[in-house]
Amino acid sequence: MIEEAARLIVDAGYNGFSYADLAEAIGIRKASIHHHFPSKVDLVVAVVEQRRAAIRAQVDALEHGTPDAMLQLRAYVDYWKRCIEDQSSPFCLAGVLAVELPSLPAEVAVAVQGHFNDLAQWLERVMVLGKKQGTIELEMNPRISSQFFQTTVYGAMVMARAYNDPNKFNAIIDAFMQRMRPKRR
């Protein structure tokens, strides 16, 4: 249920799918969905929280398995490059929901904002580490730099989706990553 609901959200957004769509997609009755998730809000919060937990685990593995900050950022953007190029994973669920934030129920909005807060905290740690290691050159303080990075990645995702052109993502991200590399003196 969770995985199919996630797919429906990525494809149609929060307001673009119903329990009837989910029931049809997985071959059960709507009442069965309501048994597990009394409301659509409950279902979507569960979907977002499941994705948040998975992303936190991936970030933890990256932080503990890749000591170089620039390599952590590279691994993060390379994941999205692959997903966008070969559609091996869906578009970011939180990114889709963030666009709808003004019309989302408060509980869903809090879960979506939690995802972006988790990501921002990790990126700030990476920026601090990269500056300390000398592997990342920041134009601004680590907090603003992490927000700038996050905005660039999500903006590039939207551009690639809007144009149905993975090269839009790649060009934007490659240029941005190049700006962050320390200049040889």
Describe what this molecule looks like in 3D:
The structure is a single chain. The chain has helices at 2-12, 19-26, 30-36, 40-65, 69-86, 93-99, 106-133, 142-163, 166-180. It is elongated and about 60 Å long. It contains nine helices and no strands. Helix 2 (19-26) crosses helix 3 (30-36) and helix 7 (106-133) packs across helix 8. It has 185 residues and is mostly helical. The termini are far apart.
Summarize the structure.
By secondary structure, this protein is mainly α.
Q: Helices and strands in order, then pairings?
A:
Elements: H1 2-12, H2 19-26, H3 30-36, H4 40-65, H5 69-86, H6 93-99, H7 106-133, H8 142-163, H9 166-180
Helix pairs in contact: 1-4, 2-3, 4-7, 5-7, 5-9, 6-7, 7-8, 8-9
Query: What fraction, in percent, of the residue positions are helical?
Result: over 70%
Sketch the topology as an H/E string, one letter per element: HHHHHHHHH
From the spread of the alpha carbons, the general shape counts as elongated
**Mean pLDDT over all positions:** 93
Question: What structural class do you assign from the helix and strand content?
Answer: mainly alpha
How many separate helices?
A: 9
Q: Whole-Å distance between the termini?
A: 55 Å
Q: What percentage of amino acids are in beta strands?
A: under 5%
Q: What about the largest sheet?
A: none
Radius of gyration, rounded?
A: 18 Å
Which stretches are poorly predicted, pLDDT < 50 over at least 5 residues?
A: none
How many β-strand runs?
0
